[in-house]
Amino acid sequence: MDDLRELYQATILDHNKSPRNFGAKPECSHRADGYNPICGDKLTVFLALGDGDRVEDVSFEGVGCAISTASASLMTEFVKGKTAAEVEKDFKSFHELVTGPPAETLDVPGLGKLAVFSGVREYPMRVKCATLCWHTLRAALEGDEQPAKTE
Amino acid sequence: MTAATNRTPLDVARVRKDFPILATASRGKPLVFLDTAASSQKPQAVIDALSAFYASGYANIHRGLYQLSAEATRLFEGARIRVQEFIGAADAREIVFVRNATEAINLVAYSWGRQNVGVGDEILISAMEHHANIVPWQMLCEEKGATLRVAPIDDRGQLVPGGIAELLSDRTKLLAITHVSNALGTINPVREIVELAHARGVKVLLDGAQAVPHTSVDVRSIDCDFYAFSGHKLFAPSGIGVLYGKLAHLEAMPPFMGGGEMIASVTFEKTTYAEVPRKFEAGTPDIAGVIGLGAAIDYIEEIGMGRIEVWEAELLEYATRRLEALPQVRLVGTAEHKAAVLSFVVSGVHPHDVGTILDQEGIAVRSGHHCAQPVMDRFGVPATTRASLAFYNTKEDVDALIRGIEKVLEIFG
Q1: How does DSSP assign B321-387, residue by residue?
Q2: Residue of B nearest to A38 (CA)
Q3: At what angle do helices A127-142 and A66-79 cross, to 10 degrees?
Q4: Which residues in chain B have their CB less than 8 angstroms from residue A125's CB?
Q5: What are chain B's domains?
Q6: Residue B360 and residue A63: Cβ atoms within 8 Å?
Q7: SS3 category, B127
Q8: Domain assignment present for A151
């Protein structure tokens, strides 16, 4: 049960139940679709970029598991107001957090609330659930037409 | 196996001892294996047959003049006869060894399909097919300019009455349909379906991957033209499968792959092919896999398919009742005639979260689309969690599943 609480922390369950920044924003300048063919999770990220490639607004919609939904929700909160370069740096840190060696307390600084996903690294099958939204966000920033994939 | 021995009930505690993996732990808990529909576990008899063959009987078959090769060939061809008898085929030459049911279906699509399907022709499948019985036909239709038609299913996951009859036309060349659905558990009335198709001059291929391990199959009584199944779901090693085809069809079909083993003579000008089934068995086959398949069939027949069917029906009834008692659980696939497959969704919880929480309890289930995305679309779900049972499962396994789901509800409550 402790291991499960490690994965399904209260913050994750809360963001799964009431995802923040949820819903389409068709007026946004950038958008991208994400798809995980292994599990069928789909999501779309909407992005409004301002001066200096700064994220002025961001939202998402789609269906997925608790890890995937909470990750997208927390990500939108986390990147709002940041520049594209900063988001890229966050993606790398987040990726390190969820793919680091299991059973090691890996300190990845600067991730704030996103640290709740550290339990994911114990479940290699679930890493893609946590990272799909980030792949999709990067695709939106780069203006990719093709759906982002975790594969 | 005689009817008399089939009358004594299955001793599940005893058969569990035949499967060493069932005594192991997963995530520090006793393993509760509920994913037989994906692949079955292996009895010691099969493990021993493989080990003995590699330790003291291994050689290539059909070629060597030495005793070891002759004996390996005898074991290999003996297993073919075991398969023939097991599914009630008229002739051992009707048994073609392939890698799995997928390859068996592809063999028919490439060989029989390319010879018999043309522009404007139709191939009929059903809405409950595994991708293995969809994609090869789509590829064939695309290549030949033929059309794929799909017989509908109802909300319980059963073929809609009259649906197949309505879609059979003068252009239909083949009906390819599953015997038992992997995602829903539905058992199709294959004898009636074959009769219906044959009355219109349409050949029938049955995907028997989920049927052969759980029910007696007699291809002569069903009268299908082709029957495909995998060894790995039948308690045999992975990597070996079977295509049954009526002898006249197989003899008329061109080879699927060229190479050694499948020839009678080769010159640079012309090659003549071997007789069936070797015409379809190019290259060195999975010799040990075939011998393991023979051992698996011996093992199943020793237990008795009659007893297996009775026990699995009791498990299915019990599991259905326990799952239906949970108001947050919805079963997907509630056909009147069902195999022991329970696909379900938990209200408000994604199947992957269900799967992860069950895994933590040592319970192995499958969460996903089960290689049947159109089935998921039909029921309006992205995925399901599937518990699939075999004769080595117990009511205690089902109880563990229910406790696991209660844990899911507790965490997501």
Answers
A1: HHHHTSTTEEEE---SSB-SEEEEEETTB-HHHHHHHHHHTTEE-EEE-TT-HHHHHHTT-S-EEEE
A2: B368
A3: 40
A4: 356
A5: 3-30+304-412 (3.90.1150.10), 48-301 (3.40.640.10)
A6: no
A7: coil
A8: no
CA angle B264, B267, B273 (to 5 degrees): 25
Pick from A3, A13, A41: CB nearest B412: A13
Tell me which amino acid residue B324 is.
E
Q: Closest by alpha carbon to A59, among A73, A70, A78, A71?
A: A73
Residue-wise pLDDT for B175-228, tens only, equals 999 999 999 999 999 999 999 999 999 999 999 999 999 999 999 999 999 999
What is the ipTM score, two decimals? 0.88
What are B274-288's pLDDT values in tens digits? 999 999 999 999 999
Q: Whole-prediction pTM value? A: 0.93
Distance from CA of B94 to the nearest CA of A (A): 36
Q: Give B400→chain A minimum CA distance, Å.
A: 15
> Pick the catalytic residue: B38, B150, B167, B371?
B371
B371 catalytic per annotation: yes
Phi, psi (rounded to 5 degrees) for B195: -60, -45
Report yes or no: A41 at the B interface, CB cutoff 8 Å. yes
Q: Domain containing A36 — which CATH number?
A: 3.90.1010.10
The neighbour count for residue B369, using CB atoms within 10 Å, is 22
Q: Is A127 on the interface with B (CB under 8 A)?
A: no
Domain of residue A64, residue span: 2-146
